[in-house]
Amino acid sequence: MASDIGRAGAYQRQAARLTNRGFTLIELLIAVAVFAVVAVSVYTRSGDVLRQLAALEDRTLAVWLAENELAALRLARLGVDAPMPTGKNSHQVAMSGRDWIVAVQIQDTTHPWLRRADVAVAHAESPEATVSTLTGFIGRY
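The structure corresponding to this sequence follows.
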């Protein structure tokens, strides 16, 4: 009986040695392939996120510039009784380390004391590509 116990122990040690050999080459190749697919998808997605973030920042700054211009037009009308002249003008503005072109077009409305102001904001490098537009109305009072 003692000899049976010794034999079982040797068999168990040999089985333990066979199961603790580590990963096979195929298992490692599959793991590397899965990692590569995940890494490529994360890399491309992070590039998309960065492009979206830059576009969102541009649009946000352009909206702020348009709102600032509309507020400045309204403030300039305080204490002035004459109707606002119509026409189109543009000027360059620097904000957040960038140069922008702000174009304002003032138009008549059906009411003689009310004007429509269309404000378009674009990058100074490409003034034909409008980033944001804002429409507001400016009254006589």
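The longest strand covers residues 98-108.
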